[in-house]
């Protein structure tokens, strides 16, 4: 049975103790011009003190805080800073602030041992409305995992996020960094001790939105990899050695995103072997190479599909998330290979770091407009970009323009209209074109037109490198 903390709406918020606070629409560090705050209120319910769940991000175009993709977004934004923060210049502080907004929330969501609050909002009821975050009146159901209803996947990812972020703040805020890594260790212990996918016990709340399709094994390996990197505690290296194979280290599942972390873990652990010379992790170089070979057109073991225009195509639903995450991994692995003066051998085809960077650059260039439609899939960038994105706050008139409340179902007339969104969500990446490079730019087409935080996060690192690589491609 799912664990419910409480069900309430903003109309019950009273001065006093915290029910919940939300960032407005800070899914991309920037919010659409003209938007106000949502759920930045304090309250209590029947005199009961409720958990402080201030902060965090909505995952995409809806008004729900899903902990699973939020944690992955945090991990990838942190990894972007870890690898390429030195190239971010004036944007580094903005990236760190975006990470901290997420980790502050994740610390609150994990404040009680062996409990993680993994969702705020009733997704089914939220999706039955098309309303601004400021007007939201759907139930703010809080859902948790615990010993009786475990979730090793979301817990493992949360541990990874906290551990990765601890590295981001190690020098600038060592006290905060230590808090993050200590919490990561505790959360990972919970994830490993009480095993099971969170969508077993919470299916009616988290599916089909963020079901754990790949299981929880990948998150345990991923979480252990980040804790090994963050702590250098030999216990985590031993955990990886003992459990790696049973957790799927060598599987040929070459998709990296919010659900499946195997490829990311392989790339991350390969660095320990290639750069830090941790010989016990030798096999992960081979596992990472297998992933790389799957991407190289014409090479042995190549299995990736590309559109006629050259875009990596994994699936029709939010395909651009795999483009941004793969571009990041290509650039990151190229960095590791360069540091160790190593290449990839794909059945007789030698693949150099330069080739990996070129492939990554081609994907990012396509995303930014070098494609058959000459369409930038980053909102607000270039002369032509998606104007009807599947995002409530962007599509509905701002409070400044339309102060009166827009009721739950009233907004669907806007959602179904052909008019462009009035609020431009600058920087947001949408799902992208289909396998034939077509993009209808329809608000109702969430598979292609919805933005998401986990599409943007890996791109931050890739753009930092490509913007300042000075020809090192």
TrEMBL record:
* Leading EC class: hydrolase
EC assignment: 3.2.1.4
**UniProt-listed GO biological process terms:** cellulose catabolic process
Which residues does the UniProt record annotate as the domain Glycoside hydrolase family?
35-463
UniProtKB keywords: Carbohydrate metabolism, Cellulose degradation, Glycosidase, Hydrolase, Polysaccharide degradation
Superkingdom per UniProt? Eukaryota
**Is-annotated flag, keyword Nucleus?**
no
Q: InterPro entries from the entry?
A: 6-hairpin_glycosidase_sf, 6hp_glycosidase-like_sf, Glyco_hydro_9, Glyco_hydro_9_Asp/Glu_AS, Glyco_hydro_9_His_AS
> Which GO terms of the molecular function aspect are on file?
cellulase activity
Catalytic residues, chain numbering: 390, 441, 450
Whether Hydrolase counts among this entry's keywords is: yes
Give the family per the record: Belongs to the glycosyl hydrolase 9 (cellulase E) family.
**PANTHER family assigned to the protein according to its UniProt record, in alphabetical order:** ENDO-1,4-BETA-GLUCANASE
Q: What is this protein called?
A: Endoglucanase
Q: Which organism is it from?
A: Acer negundo (Box elder)
């Amino acid at each position: 049975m799912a664990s419910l903390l409480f069900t309430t709406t903003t109309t019950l918020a009273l001065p006093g103790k915290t029910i919940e606070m939300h960032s407005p629409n800070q899914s991309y560090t920037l919010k659409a011009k003209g938007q106000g705050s949502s759920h930045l209120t304090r309250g209590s319910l029947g005199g009961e003190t409720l958990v402080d769940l201030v902060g965090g991000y909505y995952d995409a175009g809806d008004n729900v805080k899903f902990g699973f993709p939020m944690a992955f977004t945090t991990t990838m934004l942190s990894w972007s800073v870890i690898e390429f923060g030195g190239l971010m210049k004036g944007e580094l502080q903005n990236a760190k602030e975006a990470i901290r907004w997420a980790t502050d929330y994740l610390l609150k969501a994990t404040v009680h041992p062996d409990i993680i609050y993994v969702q705020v909002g009733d997704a089914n009821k939220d999706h039955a409305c098309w309303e601004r975050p400021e007007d939201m009146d759907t139930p703010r159901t809080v859902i948790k995992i615990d010993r009786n209803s475990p979730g090793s996947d979301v817990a493992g990812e949360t541990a990874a996020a906290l551990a990765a972020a601890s590295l981001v703040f190690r020098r600038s805020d060592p006290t905060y960094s230590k808090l993050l890594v200590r919490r990561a260790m505790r959360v990972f212990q919970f994830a490993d001790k009480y095993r099971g996918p969170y969508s077993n016990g919470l299916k009616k709340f988290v599916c089909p939105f963020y079901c754990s399709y790949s299981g929880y094994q990948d998150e345990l390996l991923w979480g252990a990899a980040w804790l090994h990197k963050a702590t250098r505690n030999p216990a985590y290296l031993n955990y990886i050695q003992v459990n790696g194979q049973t957790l799927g280290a060598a599987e040929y599942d070459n998709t990296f995103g919010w659900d499946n972390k195997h490829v990311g873990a392989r790339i991350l652990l390969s660095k320990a072997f290639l750069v830090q010379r941790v010989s016990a992790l030798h096999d992960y170089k081979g596992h990472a190479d297998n992933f790389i070979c799957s991407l190289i057109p014409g090479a042995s073991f190549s299995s990736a599909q590309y559109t006629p225009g050259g875009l990596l195509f994994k699936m029709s639903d939010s395909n651009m998330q795999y483009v941004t995450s793969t571009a990041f991994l290509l650039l990151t692995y190229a960095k590791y290979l360069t540091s160790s003066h190593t290449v990839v051998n794909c059945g007789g085809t030698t693949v150099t770091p330069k080739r990996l960077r070129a492939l990554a650059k081609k994907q990012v260039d396509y995303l930014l407009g070098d494609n058959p439609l000459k369409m930038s899939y980053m909102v607000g960038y270039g002369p032509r970009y998606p104007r009807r994105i599947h995002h409530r706050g962007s599509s509905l008139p701002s409070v400044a323009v339309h102060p009166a409340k827009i009721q739950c179902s009233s907004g669907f007339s806007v959602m179904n209209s052909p008019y462009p969104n009035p609020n431009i969500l600058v920087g947001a990446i949408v799902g992208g074109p289909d396998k034939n490079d077509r993009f209808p730019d329809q608000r109702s087409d969430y598979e292609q037109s919805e933005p998401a935080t986990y599409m943007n996060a890996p791109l931050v690192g890739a753009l930092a490198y490509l913007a300042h690589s000075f020809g090192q491609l």
